[in-house]
Amino acid sequence: MRDVAVIGIGMTEFGEIWEKSFRELVAEAGIKAIMDAGIEGEEIDALYIGGMSTGRFIGQEHVGSLAVEVAGLEDLHIPSTRVEAACASGGVAMHQGYLAVASGMYDIVVVGGAEKMTDVVGGEATNILASAADREWEAFFGATFPGLYALMAKYHMHKYGTTQEQLAMVAVKNHYNGSLNPKAQFKRRISVEDVLKSPMVADPLHLLDCSPISDGAAAAVLAPLEIAKKYTDKPIKISASIQATDTLSLHGRKRFDALPAAQHAAKLAYEKADIKPKDVDVAEVHDCFTIAEIIAIEDLGFVEKGKGGKATEEGLTALDGEIPVNTSGGLKAKGHPVGATGVAQINEIVLQLRGEAGERQVKEAEIGLAHNVGGSGGTAVVHILEVI
Amino acid sequence: MRDVAVIGIGMTEFGEIWEKSFRELVAEAGIKAIMDAGIEGEEIDALYIGGMSTGRFIGQEHVGSLAVEVAGLEDLHIPSTRVEAACASGGVAMHQGYLAVASGMYDIVVVGGAEKMTDVVGGEATNILASAADREWEAFFGATFPGLYALMAKYHMHKYGTTQEQLAMVAVKNHYNGSLNPKAQFKRRISVEDVLKSPMVADPLHLLDCSPISDGAAAAVLAPLEIAKKYTDKPIKISASIQATDTLSLHGRKRFDALPAAQHAAKLAYEKADIKPKDVDVAEVHDCFTIAEIIAIEDLGFVEKGKGGKATEEGLTALDGEIPVNTSGGLKAKGHPVGATGVAQINEIVLQLRGEAGERQVKEAEIGLAHNVGGSGGTAVVHILEVI
Questions:
Q1: Left if phi > 0, otherwise alpha if psi is -120 to 50, otherwise beta: which for A381?
Q2: Which residues of B are catalytic?
């Protein structure tokens, strides 16, 4: 297998972007990434695009072909593949793009992710998102994602003494980081009190414990590491790209205080990259709900299982902490256009490793990690990126 | 890149399968393929599953994770990836599975495809399928797939003198082949008169010029060629796996008498396999409508452009012809559960190359080709398989 590097990144602003269609978002992210990589469209050998439920959000499947038409690359007839793994669609697109380059069949591969979620009527987005859970045995009986993650939160609180205030502190931190990110959906700083006073969605998760419904797209350009320097002075090596699965249903899961797929992916990723969790300088993790970030930093080995709430309270994951987590604002504040999220995480890590993250730059960041989850943990993808 | 072989195949019957759910179809095809390969579930390193619009047909996205749960493989945490490229979802899953093995990262990869289309109310299936066309500029204005392919048929008839009778002969041939395939949806033999007397769907396409709405699933097990003999006495080599794209929209296409993506994929596939079209002993092509088979055999170089209708009339593609096409019955008679089709084509070619195709066996078949198309030609995948 060949080593693979990221040579370009690009993304749109995330948010309620009424004035841009799905295809305009895809085009904008793609063009930015291509320009960042300094390549011509003709150099592209393959495309991947992550999208969760384009069929239901915008009535359009077959968005691999759409991306080629949008990019004006139809005369090249290059392969373009849509992949879908619920909210991990972007991370899975990254893994498949990585494999495509690593295989030796393709050199320059553009990986994108996109979702246009705000064009459906109120409530319908939550119903569409529930198609990432087990439709027959969960969603059909009324379970939604806030409900499923609330169950995990209750269990974590019960087992480890995690508090509502600690959950809220995840949101407070990520909104602070979001206030430093021009592309974030929410740039407003909030307090623990704001979170606790916000409406209850699914006990114990308040509105401000939940990531939003968003529009947006992100892209990254991959190349074999051996030729990456031809394109950029700052190629970022993909030291590990691991995709894992678990049961679709939460009730089928072996444990509820962890996502075993994420633990598995992290373990293999650390082995592949030959690093320890403490070597990670900056991480983007899948904080679809505040409890998800607490479970994530435990699953990734940044802290012991059960200590995620306490560690958050003590500032371990703050911008000036030992392992800054979700410097972009995370899904919580940057926004969560589900298909785009995994690729947007890669965008943030690359910015940090290049030293281009502006006000939210982590000092001397050399190793970064991205953790992307689908559903209640049915899919998990972990990438480790390194400055070379 | 490593060479890749097919070491096992399996599929369900295709048709209106009211008594089996999506997950039961997935399980059945997967188990059959695994048993055919003689492997244990624990040996599987990765899964791919093609599904076009599971979100709309059955309200379920994230079917990669579902496939793992259905297979009882959750404790392995192996990656499972859903890919979608409209009616080419199965072919694209094959290409991605091929890349996964070729890369060296995964050894045993199971590729599946599935669709459960008959559980939606009348007419809705056609609307869902239209999401494979350009929703904003085609489907929104009322274009459906019968309409889009009817436009191609009219143009082909106008330009090359192709007749309605020649179109009908494709259906007659494929229904005959289907009558020899126990898994086919339609086993009834029909006449040219039957086709011409069947209701007009979109001039010039009658009902019997169209493939049906179907339920079904298919799977194949891939392995590195170098270890394939460990598993089977009859490994089938994948000599070429090429995926290509074109515009999503038909109106954006450079020509209407061909699918340029299919022509491109075929050209690269012949080069990679180092063969000529005349070397192909048996082919499964994407006959979603009768005109599509005529265009396909031209695009694949079996006949000159414009001669597909005449060649069909003369029996070139019949079971006892020079290049038997759609020996399985094709999409037309075997059925067309869209996500499964590309993998079902591989099933048929492998059966033929192993000499296990029963009454529809092509004598001394050593090289087979599968041609899978998404939408009106926005995606095309060509596989060439060989006896070794």
A1: beta
A2: 87, 336
Q: Find the residue in B nearest to A106 (Cα).
A: B99
Tell me which residue of A5, A11, A7 sits closest to A344, measured CA to CA: A11
- Domains A4-122+214-236 and A128-212+239-387 equal at CATH topology level: yes
Any residues with CB less than 8 A from the CB of B317 and at least 6 apart, and which? Answer: B173, B293, B297, B302, B311, B323, B324, B325, B326
DSSP state of B216: E
**Alpha carbons A352 and B215: distance in angstroms, whole number:** 48
Q: Measured between CB atoms, which of A21, A60, A244 is closest to B131?
A: A60
The stretch A161-166 carries a mean pLDDT of 98
How many C-beta neighbours within 10 Å does residue A196 have?
16
Q: What is the pLDDT of residue B123?
A: 85
- Residue B302: the pLDDT is 98
Buried b (16+ CB within 10 A) or exposed e, A64-73: bbbbbbbbeb
Task: Assign residue B189 a region (left: φ > 0; alpha: ψ between -120 and 50; beta: otherwise).
Answer: beta
ipTM above 0.85, yes or no: yes
Structure tokens at A23: 């295809």
SS3 at position A34: helix
In whole numbers, what is the pLDDT of chain A averaged over residues? Answer: 97
* Fold (CATH) for A4-122+214-236: Peroxisomal Thiolase; Chain A, domain 1 (3.40.47)
B202-207, long-range: CB within 8 Å, 24+ apart, which pairs? Answer: B202/B144, B202/B146, B202/B147, B202/B149, B202/B150, B203/B150, B203/B154, B204/B150, B204/B153, B204/B154, B204/B157, B204/B164, B204/B167, B205/B146, B205/B149, B205/B150, B205/B153, B205/B167, B205/B289, B205/B290, B205/B291, B206/B168
Distance, in Å, from the CA atom of B132 to the CA atom of B153, rounded to the nearest integer, reads 19
Q: Which among B373, B174, B192 has a CA at the least distance from the CA of B292?
A: B373
Nearest CA in chain B to A60: B131
What's the CA gap between A100 and A17, in Å, rounded?
32
The position carrying tokens 């000599």 is: B239
Whole-angstrom Cα Rg for chain B: 19
**Per-residue tokens: A36:** 């960042």
What is the rounded average pLDDT of the residues B214-238? 97
In chain B, which among 209-248 make CB contacts under 8 A with chain A?
A: 242-248
Pick from B308, B321, B313, B315: which is nearest to B365 by CA? B321
pLDDT at residue A131 greater than cutoff 90: yes
Domain boundaries, chain B: 4-122+214-236, 124-211+238-387
Which residues in chain A touch residue B136, judged by CB atoms under 8 angstroms apart?
Answer: 21, 23, 60
| pLDDT (tens digit per residue) in A280-320 | 999 999 999 999 999 999 999 999 999 999 999 999 999 99
Does the CB of A59 have a partner CB in chain B at under 8 Å?
yes
Instruction: Give the β-pairing of B205-206 and B200-202.
Output: antiparallel
Residue A373 in 3-state DSSP?
A: strand
What tokens does A201 get? 């969605």
pLDDT digits (tens, 9 = 90+) for B312-339: 999 999 999 999 999 999 999 999 999 9
| pTM of the complete model | 0.98
Separation of alpha carbons B259 and B264, rounded Å? 9
Domain A128-212+239-387, CATH among 3.10.20.310, 3.40.47.10, 3.40.50.150, 3.30.1540.20: 3.40.47.10
CATH code linked to domain B124-211+238-387: 3.40.47.10
Residues pairing with B241 in the sheet:
B383
The backbone torsions φ and ψ at residue B94, rounded to the nearest 5 degrees and listed phi first, read: -60, -45
